[in-house]
């Protein structure tokens, strides 16, 4: 378990422990259900050689690299992230790669790019951390050219299922975690967001993401520590809950997961 709280992805640089967030992303990216989602998100962009594509909230830049490989040297893949530490890590990982990648610090709520600057725009697991996701989305629409594609991957934290005999504690923990995200319900709102912004050919692909016991600790451990300190959750209940899940993991019957929504469409 950890004391770092992933609901603080809003302000990685201010936590003083950017390494935790980088490690968290690296570990998350090894999850087979996340890996199986990546090609679906990219396919939503209809990538081909020569396109200019933006990734908003790019983190360590893994997906920008995948885009760059598909758009080739006649195209461009640009990653923007609010965290200087993330941008520095993305730059470090791609230095000397020869790929057409650029990374820069920027805020999804106010992108510096001109209207229609990109053929495609994507974001993954970012909008949940944004207080005004509809505003961030309309910025993505603004910088995408007419006929260009947008593809988004995000979770809906009220779909979190954890197999525990402690139903009330589970519900309290799921609600507490979901509500401490800036936009914990973003998954279910994505399709409406596309439609309200005049996007056409909108497609929704749901994916169930299952995680292991250890990753559950990374994901919610820090939040639970904070919630107990704040008196929002009872430490005795939380301890009993974790112990039972640990036993369930040792016995090979642990199950936890949540729903991801991959939504893509064309700027009409
Ligand atoms: C959970 S990480 C996902 C990173 C990457 N998209 C991935 O899938 O590996 C969320 C990222 O969004 C960034 N972020 C949070 N709020 C942002 C904002 N307002 N504008 C741009 N980036 C933001 C964080 O710094 C972090 O790198």
Concise synopsis of the structure shown:
The protein has 268 residues and is α/β, with parallel strands linked by helices. The chain has 10 helices and 7 strands.
Summary tags:
Rossmann fold; binds S-adenosylmethionine; 10 helices; 25% strand; 44% helix; alpha/beta; 7-stranded mixed beta sheet
Number of helical regions: 10
Question: Strands of the biggest beta sheet: in what spatial order?
Answer: 3-2-1-4-5-7-6
Helical fraction: 40-55%
Shape: globular
Largest sheet: 7 strands, mixed
Can you put this structure into words, describing what you see?
The structure is a single chain. By secondary structure, the chain is α/β, with parallel strands linked by helices. The chain has a single domain, classed as Vaccinia Virus protein VP39 (Rossmann fold). The protein has helices at residues 12-15, 18-28, 32-43, 62-71, 84-94, 133-143, 167-180, 186-196, 213-229, 235-250; strands spanning 52-56, 76-81, 101-105, 118-124, 144-162, 199-211, 256-267. The protein has a 7-stranded mixed β-sheet with strand order 3-2-1-4-5-7-6, with helices on both faces. Helix 5 (84-94) links the parallel strand 2 and strand 3 (101-105). The chain is globular, with a radius of gyration of 19 Å. S-adenosylmethionine is lined by residues 9-10, 12, 25, 56-59, 62, 81-83, 86, 107-109, 124-126, 129-130.
Which SSEs are present, and which pair or pack?
Layout: H1 12-15, H2 18-28, H3 32-43, E1 52-56, H4 62-71, E2 76-81, H5 84-94, E3 101-105, E4 118-124, H6 133-143, E5 144-162, H7 167-180, H8 186-196, E6 199-211, H9 213-229, H10 235-250, E7 256-267
S-adenosylmethionine (SAM) binds near residues 62 and 125.
